[in-house]
Amino acid sequence: MVHKDDPDQRFKILVVTVSTTRTEETDMSGEALKSQLSKGSHTVDRIVCKDDKKEIIDAFESNQDYDIFVFVGGTGPSRRDVTVQSLRKISEKEMVGFGEMFRAESRERLAYLSNSTLFIRSRKQIYCIPGSPDATGIAASIISSIMGHLFHELNKE
Prior knowledge:
Layout: E1 12-18, H1 28-38, E2 43-49, H2 53-61, E3 68-72, H3 83-90, E4 93-94, H4 97-106, E5 117-121, E6 124-129, H5 133-155
Parallel strand pairs: 1-2, 1-3, 3-6
Antiparallel strand pairs: 4-5, 5-6
Protein backbone atom coordinates (compact mmCIF):
# COMPACT_ATOMS: atom_id res chain seq x y z
CA MET A 1 0.00 0.00 0.00
CA VAL A 2 1.36 3.42 -0.96
CA HIS A 3 0.89 6.22 1.54
CA LYS A 4 0.27 9.86 0.73
CA ASP A 5 3.22 12.13 1.45
CA ASP A 6 2.62 14.78 4.08
CA PRO A 7 2.46 18.08 2.13
CA ASP A 8 3.65 19.96 5.23
CA GLN A 9 6.73 17.79 5.70
CA ARG A 10 9.93 19.82 5.57
CA PHE A 11 13.43 18.43 5.24
CA LYS A 12 16.92 19.67 5.96
CA ILE A 13 18.89 19.04 2.78
CA LEU A 14 22.62 19.43 2.22
CA VAL A 15 23.91 19.78 -1.34
CA VAL A 16 27.57 18.75 -1.47
CA THR A 17 29.40 19.63 -4.67
CA VAL A 18 32.41 17.38 -5.19
CA SER A 19 34.99 19.06 -7.39
CA THR A 20 38.66 19.87 -7.69
CA THR A 21 37.93 23.08 -9.61
CA ARG A 22 34.62 24.54 -8.41
CA THR A 23 34.26 26.89 -5.48
CA GLU A 24 31.15 28.16 -3.69
CA GLU A 25 31.23 31.15 -6.05
CA THR A 26 31.64 29.16 -9.31
CA ASP A 27 29.44 26.17 -8.47
CA MET A 28 26.46 26.77 -10.74
CA SER A 29 25.19 23.17 -10.54
CA GLY A 30 25.08 23.12 -6.76
CA GLU A 31 23.42 26.53 -6.64
CA ALA A 32 20.81 25.48 -9.23
CA LEU A 33 20.04 22.31 -7.28
CA LYS A 34 19.75 24.28 -4.04
CA SER A 35 17.30 26.64 -5.70
CA GLN A 36 15.21 23.82 -7.16
CA LEU A 37 15.01 21.83 -3.91
CA SER A 38 14.19 24.98 -1.89
CA LYS A 39 10.93 25.37 -3.80
CA GLY A 40 9.33 22.83 -1.50
CA SER A 41 9.97 25.05 1.56
CA HIS A 42 12.77 22.76 2.65
CA THR A 43 15.91 24.09 4.30
CA VAL A 44 18.71 23.61 1.79
CA ASP A 45 22.36 24.40 2.44
CA ARG A 46 25.32 23.95 0.15
CA ILE A 47 29.02 23.16 0.56
CA VAL A 48 31.89 22.25 -1.77
CA CYS A 49 34.46 19.53 -1.09
CA LYS A 50 37.38 18.14 -3.06
CA ASP A 51 37.39 14.87 -5.03
CA ASP A 52 38.93 13.12 -2.06
CA LYS A 53 37.58 10.01 -0.32
CA LYS A 54 38.20 11.37 3.18
CA GLU A 55 36.63 14.77 2.43
CA ILE A 56 33.58 13.17 0.82
CA ILE A 57 32.96 10.88 3.78
CA ASP A 58 33.61 13.75 6.21
CA ALA A 59 31.05 15.93 4.39
CA PHE A 60 28.44 13.31 5.29
CA GLU A 61 29.61 12.31 8.75
CA SER A 62 30.14 15.85 10.07
CA ASN A 63 26.67 17.04 9.00
CA GLN A 64 24.35 14.58 10.69
CA ASP A 65 21.69 17.19 11.44
CA TYR A 66 20.52 16.91 7.79
CA ASP A 67 17.89 14.44 6.59
CA ILE A 68 18.94 14.29 2.95
CA PHE A 69 22.29 14.64 1.21
CA VAL A 70 22.79 15.27 -2.49
CA PHE A 71 26.36 14.79 -3.69
CA VAL A 72 26.85 16.57 -7.01
CA GLY A 73 29.80 15.41 -9.11
CA GLY A 74 32.33 12.63 -9.00
CA THR A 75 30.00 10.01 -10.51
CA GLY A 76 31.73 9.58 -13.88
CA PRO A 77 34.49 7.39 -15.29
CA SER A 78 37.41 9.75 -14.57
CA ARG A 79 40.00 8.43 -12.13
CA ARG A 80 39.28 11.53 -9.99
CA ASP A 81 35.59 10.57 -9.72
CA VAL A 82 35.43 8.82 -6.33
CA THR A 83 32.13 10.01 -4.83
CA VAL A 84 30.18 6.80 -5.31
CA GLN A 85 33.04 4.50 -4.29
CA SER A 86 33.66 6.56 -1.15
CA LEU A 87 30.05 6.64 0.01
CA ARG A 88 29.43 3.00 -0.87
CA LYS A 89 32.02 2.06 1.78
CA ILE A 90 29.98 3.66 4.57
CA SER A 91 26.46 2.92 3.34
CA GLU A 92 24.08 0.35 4.77
CA LYS A 93 22.03 -0.07 1.61
CA GLU A 94 22.15 0.97 -2.04
CA MET A 95 19.01 1.71 -4.02
CA VAL A 96 20.19 1.27 -7.62
CA GLY A 97 16.73 2.05 -9.00
CA PHE A 98 17.40 5.76 -8.47
CA GLY A 99 20.31 5.67 -10.91
CA GLU A 100 18.27 3.66 -13.40
CA MET A 101 15.48 6.24 -13.18
CA PHE A 102 17.93 9.12 -13.58
CA ARG A 103 19.56 7.60 -16.66
CA ALA A 104 16.21 6.74 -18.26
CA GLU A 105 14.77 10.21 -17.71
CA SER A 106 17.89 11.97 -18.99
CA ARG A 107 17.47 10.37 -22.44
CA GLU A 108 21.20 10.93 -22.99
CA ARG A 109 23.63 8.20 -23.99
CA LEU A 110 26.41 9.69 -21.89
CA ALA A 111 24.18 9.51 -18.80
CA TYR A 112 24.74 5.75 -18.90
CA LEU A 113 28.37 6.42 -18.03
CA SER A 114 27.24 8.05 -14.80
CA ASN A 115 27.30 6.11 -11.57
CA SER A 116 24.23 7.95 -10.22
CA THR A 117 22.82 6.11 -7.26
CA LEU A 118 21.16 6.42 -3.86
CA PHE A 119 22.59 5.17 -0.58
CA ILE A 120 20.98 4.80 2.83
CA ARG A 121 22.86 5.15 6.10
CA SER A 122 21.37 5.76 9.54
CA ARG A 123 17.99 6.56 7.95
CA LYS A 124 19.64 9.29 5.86
CA GLN A 125 19.15 9.54 2.11
CA ILE A 126 22.40 10.05 0.19
CA TYR A 127 21.91 10.81 -3.50
CA CYS A 128 24.85 10.85 -5.93
CA ILE A 129 24.31 12.70 -9.20
CA PRO A 130 26.51 14.04 -12.03
CA GLY A 131 27.88 17.57 -11.79
CA SER A 132 26.58 18.86 -15.11
CA PRO A 133 24.01 21.66 -14.97
CA ASP A 134 21.55 19.63 -17.08
CA ALA A 135 21.70 16.76 -14.60
CA THR A 136 20.56 18.90 -11.67
CA GLY A 137 17.12 19.61 -13.11
CA ILE A 138 16.42 15.95 -13.79
CA ALA A 139 17.78 14.88 -10.41
CA ALA A 140 15.86 17.57 -8.50
CA SER A 141 12.61 16.44 -10.08
CA ILE A 142 13.21 12.78 -9.21
CA ILE A 143 14.48 13.50 -5.70
CA SER A 144 11.55 15.81 -4.94
CA SER A 145 9.11 13.13 -6.07
CA ILE A 146 10.52 10.31 -3.92
CA MET A 147 12.17 11.81 -0.83
CA GLY A 148 8.98 12.10 1.23
CA HIS A 149 7.93 8.52 0.60
CA LEU A 150 11.45 7.25 1.25
CA PHE A 151 11.69 9.25 4.48
CA HIS A 152 8.43 7.67 5.65
CA GLU A 153 9.64 4.17 4.79
CA LEU A 154 12.97 4.66 6.54
CA ASN A 155 11.40 6.03 9.72
CA LYS A 156 8.30 3.94 10.22
CA GLU A 157 8.37 1.40 13.01
